[in-house]
Every structure is written in C-alpha cells, then in structure tokens.
Amino acid sequence: MHKLITYLLALCFYFYFGAAVYAQQSSLSGRLWDEKEQAVVGATVTLRKAGQHTSSDADGRFQFVNLPSGSYDILIKYQGLSDYEREIVVQAGANDLGNIVLSDKRIALGEVLVSTQRRTQTSVEVPVSVSVVSGDILNKMNIRQMDEMAEFIPGMQIQLQSPNNPGYVIRGITSDNGDARSQPRVSVFQDGISISRSRASVVELFDLERVEVAKGPQGTLFGRGAQIGAVHIIQNKAQDRFAAEVTGGYGAYNHRFVQGFVNTPVIKEKLANRFAINYEGRDGFIANRAGGRLNGKEVIALRNSTRLWGDNGTTADLILNYQYDNYPGTSFKSKRFAPAAGDTDPNTPAHLGADENEKLYIKRHVGGATLLVDHPLSNRWKLSSLSGFRAFKSDESFDADGTPAQLLWISEIAKGNQFSQEFRLNYEGDSKLSGFFGTSYFYENSSQDVPMRINERVLYPAYIAPLLGGQLGAQIGALGQSLNLPAEQIALLNQQVQQIFTTPPVMENGVVQPVNNLPNLQPLALGLINQLMGGQLPPGMTWDQLLASGMLPAGVLPQELIGLVSLLNGAPIEGIHRESSINYGRNQAIELFGDGSYDLTDKLKMTLGLRGTYEAQRGGYRALAANPPSVFGMIANNGSPNLLNPVANETIYAQKDYFSYVGRFALNYMFEKNNVYATVSRGRRPGVVNILPSETRYLKPEVVWSYEMGLKGIVDNGKLGYELNTYYYDWSNFQTLSFQQVEGAIAPQLLADDGGKASSFGVEAGLRYYFLPAVQLFGNYSFIDGKFSDMDENGNPQEYAGNQFRLTPKHSFAIGLDANFALKGSSSIYARPSYSYRSGVFFEDDNRPDLYQDGYGLANFTAGFRFQKRGIGYEIGAYGKNVLDTKYIIDAGNSGDTIGFPTFVGGTRSVVGAQIRVSF
User: Where would I find the TonB-dependent receptor plug domain in this sequence (predicted)?
Assistant: First the structure.
C-alpha cells in the first residue's frame, strides 16, 4: 500500500512539472458568463482548425495550452444559450479572451449538466438513467430535506424518520441498516467523497450546485457500494466574484429557517472563499403527554469552501462541512395500547418517555474535510485527486415499545470515521475516445452501541409470562408422557400452568398494570408429586420440606423443573434491568477502475467500464453480563444474566477478505438531441460478517445483474424534454433483514439474512414541457414490480417467495407547474404547485399486513413576488408542505417488534408559512 501511494505521488509530481513545460507554450483562455452574471459551467468550447475541444469549469473558465501560433475559429455551445462563434489569432505566450457573455434564448428547456461519468456532460448524452435536481430547482421548490427531493425523482424514495435513521430506496431496493457490520446498497456522495454510512449520510440541502441520482448498478463510476444506485450531492464552490444571499421564513408548528452564503474574492483570479450557513427548526407534529412534542426538528449546518487557481488551469478546492442535529425525539407509537383518553393513531398525541431517565432526543454531530484538485496535463489529459475525511457521532434515545408502560427504552450511540483517497486520470481526446482510469483507497471504522433499560415488572405481563407458560407447559407435557400419565391428566396440568401464568393486560384504559411478584409454582408441584406418590405426602408439607425430606422419588422430576419451581416462589420482581451491546465494523478497500467511451460512428457510441476491488472486512461484538442479572434471564434464558443481548464480556472479532469486480457495458445512439441506449451491468454489495458469541455467519456478497434500455432527449425546439426507460434486475444472495432466534436472547434479533433469489422489473418516465414561454409543466412516473423468487438457486422454496420488496410502491408519480410572469420593470410573480403520489408499501420483507401503509398523495406549493432595486434582488413568498394535511405513516415495526410491540411513525403534517429572500 505504501509503495502504491508513493508511486502515485511521484506520478503527480511528474505530471505537475511536465505541465510547467507546457505552460511555456502559447495558451488561450477565457471565462464564460450568462446575462445574469452567473458562470456558465460545462459549455463546450471548440477550436475548429486544431480539432481540439474543452469544457468550462465551475467558474466558467476554459483554457487551451501548447497551441501553435496562428488563426483559429472558436465555437462555444451551451444548451439554452445562444452559440458564440468568432475568428481569433493566437500569438506566442498567453492569450486571454477575457469575459465572454452568452445571451439567453427566448425559450429553452436547458440540458442539465452532470458529472456522472466523471466528466462534464449533459444529462441527455450519458448512457445512464440519471435524474438531476439543480440547486436552482431546490430553491424554487423550497426543498431543504432529502426526502422532499426524492418526490421529484422517479423510482426513488427516501424514508426520513430522523437524520439518524434514513432509508434510501432506489428502484425497490432499500439501504437503511445502522449495524456497523453491514454495508450500504446505495452510495451517497458529496463532491465525489463517499458519505454512505447510514448514521452519517443525511445532510441539509443548501447552497448546492445540483444533486445527481444515478440509478442501476454504478460500481464502475461510484465504487463498490453503489450496488443499485448513487446519490451525488455537488456543492457550490467559491467563485471569483462577490455574491451573497440570505433567505428566511416562518410557518406553522413554529417552523423557522435562515440560510445564506457569502462569496468573496480574496486574490483576484487566484483565491476565493465561500461561506454558507443553514439553520432550521420546527416544533414536533406529535404532542407528548409526558412533556414536550415529538417528531420535531432543529439543525444547524455550516460550510466553508476555498478555491485556489494555479497556473495552466489547475484548481484546488478545500471544503469543510459541519452539521449538528438536535431533535426532540421520534414518536414510535404502539397500536396495541393507547395512552389514557387517547387512541393508537400514530398521528395523534402519544405518552412516551414518562420516566425521568427516559428522555427522548436525537443529537448528531457530523463533520468532514474534502480536498479536490484538478490539474490539466494537456488539452486532452487531466489529473484529479479527491481526498476526504469524515467523522460522526450520533446519539438517539427512544421509547421502543411505544406505550406509557416504560417497558423498553433504547438508546443508540453510533460513531465512526472514514478516510478516502482517489487519483484519476481523465482523457478527452479527439471525437472518438474519452474516459478515465485510476485507483482509490477507502478506510472506515465505526461502531453501534445499544444500551437499554427494561422494566421487568411490565415485561412480565407483556412478554415473559406467556413465554414461561409455554416453556413450563412443554416440560410438564414431556414429563407426563414419560410417566405414562393419561392425556386428560396432562391437559389438566397444562391448563393449571397456563392459569398460573395468566396476568391482566399490561395496560388498561391507559393505566399501566405492573406485576410485582413472580407466580408460585410450589402448590402445583406438590399436588403433582402427591398424585404420583399415591397421596403419601403428609398434609401441610412445604416444597422446601419435601426437598429436604428425601421423599421425592429420584428421577421423577427433572432437575431443571425442580430449580424452576424453587425459583418461582412468589418472590418480588426487580424493577429496572439494564444491559447493552456494541457491534463494530472496520472496512478497508483498494480499488482499480477504468471507464471509457468510443465512437463507433458519428452517432453510435460504445461504453465499457470495470472496477476491481480488494476489501478486508472485520466485524466485532461485545455485550457485558448485566450486574445485577435479570431474574428472567436466569429463568427463561438458560441462566444468562441478560435478556436480549448474548453475553460476550470480551470483544470478539471475525474478518473476511474479498476480491471482487463490477462493470458495465453500454451502447447508445445519438440523433440530434435524442439518445437511445442499452446497458448491461453487474452490481455487488459486500458480504456481512455477522458475529455473535454462539456463531459467526458470513453472508455472501449480494450480486445483481442489470439489463436496461432507455430513450431520452429534447425536442420541439427545446420546449419538451423527456426520458423513458425500462429495466430488469436479477439478484443472487439478496440481503434482507429478518428476526432470528439466537442463543443467549429471549427474543428474536433483527439481523442481516440471505433472502436468496429475487428480481424486479420496472418502467420510468419523466418530462418537462414549456407549453407557454413562462410556464413549465413537469412530471414523472415509476412502476416497480420487485419481489422474491419462488425458488432459490438450488430449486428449494424460499421463505419470502413472491413477497414484495419492503418500502417499494408499485406505482408512484409526481406532477407540478412552474409559472413565472414578468410584470413592469424587473419584477415578476411566480407560482409552483406540485403533487406526488405513491401506492401502498409493506415495511418488512415478510409482508405482514399489520405493517403496511396504503397509498397516499402530498400537495405542496411555493408562490411569491420578485423585484430588483438598485442591483439588489428581493423575493417575498409563501410555501406549503402537505397542504391538504394528509395523514400517513413513514415507518412501522422497529425495535419494539422484537418483543411483540411493533411501533409506527407518523408522517409530516401540513406546514404553511412565508419567506423572504435578498440577493446581492
């Protein structure tokens, strides 16, 4: 590894000094702006006689180096802006064309720029299903959260219980596991740096250039974790001009927010800085009768971006991010028991965390540093370096049973850090060949600590009593059969056992009914012994006297049953039991990759990509023996002091290494502004090292083969943009989550499992249409049929045969309008209503009908008035989220389901407010 890094650094120095030689030759540079004084990013700049072309960077700059002196025709093209063409003369030395302003076209949809293939292209050009939401659209639609953004991306849902517990769903495949031993299916990136670890992946959407969502296996482009897609968040970088903006608003539920940025040149055309801030707070939607409100929000996020311009077009960006979330806690509400004078609707008041030791909250710190360096080596070669460091710590406390009973309180403390380094060489040569190759290193170390408090006086009637009754009934039945007792007598004894373990419900009319003492089995046991001995026991003999007398026939009762009878003697039940467990994950990966496109003809292009990976995974587990021990653990859990966490007083580890590959092959045919494409690709999710004291399970890596066809383009003179695609996925070793009974725990554990074979078929469509110069209609539709196969690879029936993937609506769509009407002077009014719908979903792969959400739709809007005065832009508007106040749930099941108390989380309620924006 050290030799590899040394070699790459030496290569960088070689390229750097080599480029210094080129800098001595003639060069041509310039900078592109639009009429709004915004940098034009990604415009194609061509020198016709030289047969060379390049693209403008994030500051609108372009440059050609090592040019012979002479006359050239320069052509600059950018969809939505008028072409720029002129003849120029290049003289010896540096030639600067200065600022070039590209004028607007009257009506133009505008091709969205993407860097999905690691070079600047339009979304129409790439042979990939990629959806893009620009920073401008995010501002226009008042979108600040990732789940709100997902409504406008076909085939994608983001479930956001909280910033600590997100679920990413692309084309039916969910990535949401917080266990440190599991790896994500969906990669999340910030400026090319992976932030995919679940508890650290949610970021606020502010001051962004765009968000790209590439669907389908994207391992070649985004790494081994992009098994079914990638979300790429591209932040605004510092520019060589002064600009500033501030936006603030206030609405229902005390919703308040402020966000803005200041962009400042430090040294003209050499150094600039951009500082952005975002604050948002909101009271919770759910009143908590134990105090406060739940499902609220409070977050502050800061970003500082510094850009350095070097010679020969070199740029270096240092980006620092920090986000602090301080939420009041999530309402995980039970549907089994309602609070006093309340109901079980997840969207109505709850009664959670009543104990002073059960405060509900979410606190999360996430910080990172990114260094991006782009260094042109020539007009055709560019070296890129991407360095990233990220650290996080999240602490969530929640009432896992969802009732006032204070039955099961859980905290999750997740923390970790990661480092990544990528070197990439990009080539954009003649019109035939373009692509990149490189290497990367990734390191991650994380843990998940889960302390819990259990009220055993409530746990007994809720879970333990039926469990003990079943265990003892089975023992009595086996004993009766061994003694050849009549079936009627065995049934009577079992009935007596069940009566002993019958308790009142844990709650009645919202009032908790704890059980303070264990049942007394001694009268039942004495009666049984007396029957077996033909009534020979002296009247009034106690159980202890019987054991001491020696009258009990040897072997009549198993020692286990004798011990249980002695223990269950009406003794008091202790109140609070505490225990915890920690899982650890450490992952390292070294990757080599390459991806290139070749023009077979003027219109037909072939793309081939491959990424090879060596990865080392290590999983760890620790759960200290509870002190004092749980009496129920001693009784019902084979003498264990713990209830839910198998004991491992020392951390145990297991590890596994993998060599793997992913790749893609694509053909696409461009005609005018239209692209028809077909792809075959292989995706992979790393295996799981699932370590527990009783056994270690190594889940095989999940592999998917993807087959996709699509058509997208822009027609009708730029008025209509469209996309249409269909795909089929075939999975092996599909990784799911299931409740598994493990040694050392009285309740099943939710663990990663191999679901076997699965497949999905889907269709997606999207459009944007200017049917009037000032009015744009946009919409999308997605159909997904994702389910488990009937048989596994060996022809055996599967556990989830025919079941629908969880969190996957078969049908979803969104539709909206963007209307902007100019008034006198520089003022205008706008209105942007939208509506999104998704059909019913199951929340677990076992498709339980009680964990299901029917289809529902959400209506949103923004509207307002804009004007300028003395060069300053003002905007006054209104916004609304879920304006029809549709009630729905975003999650069901959760941790309480392990003890038979599934909980439900209500969705966002109606929030309407006003906002103002000032731009300098």
Answer: 125-229
pLDDT in tens, 478-492: 877 877 778 888 888
pLDDT-derived band at 785, boundaries 50, 70, 90: very high
- Rounded to 5°, the CA angle 360-364-369 comes to 180
User: Which CATH superfamily, name and number, covers 23-102?
Assistant: Immunoglobulins (2.60.40.10)
Q: How far apart are CA 146 and CA 728, in angstroms?
A: 26
Nearest one of 403, 397, 396, 394 to 288, comparing CA atoms: 403
Sequence-distant (≥ 6) Cβ neighbours of residue 150 within 8 angstroms:
156, 157, 158
DSSP strands (E only) in 103-204: 113-114, 121-122, 130-134, 156-160, 166-170, 173-175, 186-190, 193-194
Contact predicate 857/849, CB 8 Å: no
pLDDT greater than 80 at residue 280? yes
Convert 552-564 to b/e letters by CB count within 10 Å (16 or more is b): beeeebeeebeeb
Which residue(s) pair with 852 in the sheet? 842
Domain limits of the chain? Answer: 23-102, 113-230, 231-456+576-919, 457-567
CA distances from 618 to 33, 115, 416, 819 (A): 51, 33, 14, 54
* Angle, CA of 97, 103 and 108, to the nearest 5°: 135
Exposed, middle or buried: residue 40 (CB in 10 Å: 0-12, 13-18, 19+)? Answer: buried
Tell me the three state secondary structure of residue 304: strand
Among 739, 687, 679, residue whose Cα is nearest residue 711:
679
Domain 113-230 sits in CATH 2.170.130.10: yes
Cα angle vertex 158, ends 895, 893, to 5°? 20
Terminal-residue alpha carbon distance, the chain: 49
Residue 443 CA to residue 419 CA, distance in Å, equals 5
Other C-beta atoms within 10 Å of 742: how many? 17
Cβ atoms of 753 and 706 within 8 Å: the answer is no
Question: Do 231-456+576-919 and 23-102 have the same topology in CATH?
Answer: no
Instruction: Output the CA torsion 516→575→894→695 (10° steps).
Output: -110
Residue ranges of E strands in 49-111 = 52-55, 61-67, 70-78, 81-90, 94-102
Give the Cα separation of 742 and 764 in Å (integer): 42
Q: Which letter, b or e, does each residue of 53-76 get, where b requires 16 or more Cβ atoms within 10 Å of its Cβ?
A: bbbbbbbbbbbbbbbeeeebebeb
Residue 731 CB neighbour total at 10 angstroms: 25
C-alpha to C-alpha distance for 190 and 194, rounded to whole angstroms: 7
Contact 629, 641 (CB under 8 A): yes
Mean pLDDT of 410-425: 94
CA distance 782 to 726: 10
300 and 324 in contact (C-beta within 8 Å)?
A: yes
Note the residue count of the chain. Answer: 920
Q: What CATH class is the domain 231-456+576-919? A: mainly beta
- Tens digits of residue pLDDT in 874-920: 999 999 999 999 999 999 998 899 888 999 999 999 999 999 999 99
> SS3 helix, strand, coil % of the chain, rounded to 5?
15, 50, 35
Whether residue 168 contacts residue 198, with contact meaning beta carbons closer than 8 Å, is answered with: no
DSSP 480-516: HHHTT--HHHHHHHHHHHHHHT----SEETTEE----
Burial 415-428 (b: 16+ CB within 10 A, else e): bbbbbbbbbbbbbb
Q: Cα(408)–Cα(55) distance, rounded to whole angstroms?
A: 58
Burial class, 550, CB count within 10 angstroms (exposed 0-12 / middle 13-18 / buried 19+): exposed
Phi/psi at 820 (5° precision): -130, 120
Average pLDDT, the chain: 86
